[in-house]
Specification:
The protein has three helices and no strands. By secondary structure, it is an all-alpha fold. The protein starts with a helix and ends in a 6-residue tail after the last helix. 76% of the residues lie in helices and 0% in strands. The protein has a domain at 47-87.
């Protein structure tokens, strides 16, 4: 059923299909970047990093405030600090 000729033909056709599909799948347009665009992009990096870090710090603070308030309302903490039973 599977002799050397059929296996070789199958492997060759498989390789051909893979190579053809790889060449056809490239849908990206080739874009060149000018030195001015490159310099502008590089100069924007510190601002983008700073903004990202500021946003992450603010999100972390909001998350910690929310979870801390939830934690303080649970049974052992309100019993210890407020002397009340859990609601």
């Amino acid at each position: 059923m599977w002799n050397f000729k059929s296996v070789t033909l199958f492997v060759a056709s498989l390789v051909a299909v893979v190579l053809i599909s790889m060449s056809m799948a490239n849908a990206n347009e080739k874009k060149t970047i000018t030195p001015k665009e490159f310099a502008q992009t590089i100069s924007e990096v510190p601002n983008k990093v700073g903004n990202f870090l500021t946003n992450e710090v603010e999100k972390t603070k909001a998350y910690q405030k929310e979870t801390w308030s939830k934690t303080m309302k649970t049974w052992p903490w309100n019993k210890i600090f407020k002397g009340k039973d859990n609601e």
